[in-house]
Amino acid sequence: MGYRVTPGESGGPDRKSRIRRILVTILVLNVAVALAKLGWGYVAGSVSMVADGFHSLFDGASNVIGVIGLGLAARPADRDHPYGHGKYETYASAAIGAMLAFAAYNVGSAAIGRLLAGSPPPRVDAIAFGVMIGTLAVNIGVTLYERSVGKRLGSEILIADASHTASDVLVSIGVIGGLIAVRAGYPAADPLIALAVAGAIAYTAYNVFRQATVTLSDTARIDPAKIAAVVREVPGVLGCHHIRTRGSTAEVYVDLHIQVDPSATVTAGHAVAEAVERAVCYAFDAVVDVVAHLEPYDAYQVDKTAKEIDAGLA
Q: Does 269 lie in the same domain as 144?
């Protein structure tokens, strides 16, 4: 017995199509930003600008990974994947985290290399500042928009990619600060700022991995007590326990046990269970599937439910 809702804005093919369009648009912007930074970075001899350009290229690569992940996640449930393919979106977000970690290594190693080599300072002029300020404005706009839409759609890919772009904002701010310091007569500021920002990128990667782990490890998504409160309001339900939830922020799966009058007919009990499943789906927007196991409300079940309540599980 189970009840599956028809996904609305937070789920279904429309959601995935919208996310895919956003990722493709951001991919184009990231490539344009990367080419601008890399081009003038090499001309000016700025290790921080070049590193920032490569970081933007990693942003573009993460967009490609996101599009591929969404394509896999959009496939419907089948015999081998009865719960659907939604976790592929989480796998894609974890891959973005890996790209972030690699970006941190790339930026940090380039900065250390410049410090050890003692290379001449970069050429700092109005064009360098113009490139950095212009690309910074683009990245700030992308980050704010992508994070807002990601939260509204419950998309781990968009939220992870927004974090990736936000790390690029930090890099760009650091590069601008480094260029100002170089202009003021402190050439070591260029690689030092790049090295400091590498740490910030690594921290962002850690947060992306942590969020992906929540989904992949089937961590509970909704407080069982909140679900139990909804279930006990359904007419005919005498008890509720063994509530379990899992899934992503956009697609939560629920299974639970409900207890009804032992003398109720199979038909009556089934109707109560269906009412419970509908009530849970309507009460929690992220819930896409509920399975209710029916039990008689006898002495054994009463004792089992009481023990779960005492343990904070129901």
A: no
